[in-house]
Amino acid sequence: MTPNPADDPSDAEAGDADIDADSGRTETESAEAEPVEDESVDADRADAERIDADPTGYDAGGRRDVLVVGGGVAGLTAGVFTARAGLDTLVVNAGESILRRNAHLENFPGFPAGVNARLFADMLEAQATGNGCDLLRGEVTSVRREEVKGEAARDGFVAEVELDGDAADGGERTTVAARYVVAASWSDASYLDGLGVDVRDAGSKRYVGEDGLGRTNVEGLYVAGRLAERYHQAVIAAGHGAQTAITLVHDSDVPFYNDWVTPEGYFTGRGREVPPGCEEIDDRERRARERASMAAMREYFSEPHPDRQRTHPSLVDDELGRVPEE
Ligand SMILES: Cc1cc2nc3c(=O)[nH]c(=O)nc-3n(C[C@H](O)[C@H](O)[C@H](O)COP(=O)(O)OP(=O)(O)OC[C@H]3O[C@@H](n4cnc5c(N)ncnc54)[C@H](O)[C@@H]3O)c2cc1C
Question: 206 forms bridges with which residues in the sheet?
Answer without folding.
Answer: 201
